[in-house]
Amino acid sequence: MNTPKHIAIIPDGNRRWAKEHHLPISMGHKKGVDALRDVLKASYELEIPTLSFWGASLSNLTKRSSREVYFLETLFEDNFRRLLQDPIIHENQVRVRVLGEWETVLSDGAKQAIKSAIQTTEKYQRFSLNVLIAYDGTIEMITAIEKIIQKASGNKKVKVTPELIKENLYTHDIPPVDLLIRTGGEPHLSAGFMMWEITEAQLYFSDKYWPEFTGDDLRKAIMEFNERKRRFGK
After folding, report:
1. Which of 48, 144, 170, 214 could disulfide-link 99, Cβ–Cβ 3.0 to 4.6 Å?
2. The model's pTM
3. 64 CB neighbour count, 10 Å cutoff
4. What residues are annotated to the active site?
């Protein structure tokens, strides 16, 4: 089986799942965390080296109600602390990284919990879990361009190459995405999600809301991936 080396997930549908079940929005986000753990367990059983998960967009944390933002911050703080105690992370030697503008928008408690998870797992090398928080792909690209402009200032030898762009992205040390999964039944991308890394990715759209998505659904997506022929423009 040609297992993808890097799977990225846009977990859409937490809020809609909660509304359809006549539950508070917060319960949708909580169920979403349960779904992530099930998918992580399956990904490690399948020996997928890298998994990237969109935890929250920048607009999620700046444009939604203060009540929902507070809940999300509390959710991040609680679950990154739990992550530090979770055997699934330590037994599988999972390196945790968090990408995005999270340090500029999250509460101090959430930031400290995230930093602890990053520091505690930074020497792990078997698997990689990248969580995108306060992330916007357009801002990521603008930031990379600004860094390149600064490097090129006064240095005419600097040439803009794919390698130079890559090394200035949040994802500078992350491999290209092989398979991008989006749940929620809406087959589209959002906010320039990992635009550099998904250039050659296969896309898989699930009608299930994220809280309903399971490890078996991940296996189904990978089976479909294996049936496709990747031509890479050839």
Report:
1. 170
2. 0.93
3. 16
4. 12, 60
Q: Which residues pair with 169 in a beta bridge?
A: none
Identify the CATH class of 6-136+175-227. Answer: alpha beta
In degrees and rounded to multiples of 5, residue 222 shows phi and psi of -70, -40
Following DSSP, what letter does each residue of 87-154 receive, concatenated? HHHHHTTEEEEEESSHHHHS-HHHHHHHHHHHHHHTT--SEEEEEEEEE-HHHHHHHHHHHHHHHHTT
Strands 94-99 and 179-182: unpaired
Pull the structure tokens for residue 181. 């999964």
Identify whether the C-beta of residue 182 lies closer than 8 Å to the C-beta of residue 205.
yes
Q: Specify the domain boundaries for CATH 3.40.1180.10 within the chain.
A: 6-136+175-227
∠ CA 89-92-93, nearest 5°, is 75
pLDDT for the residue 151: 86
* Per-residue pLDDT tens digits for 167-198: 999 999 999 999 999 999 999 998 899 999 99
Among residues 5, 3, 10, 11, which one has the least CA distance to residue 210? 11
Helix H or strand E segment including 68: helix 66-85
Look at 67 and 50; give whichever has higher pLDDT. 50
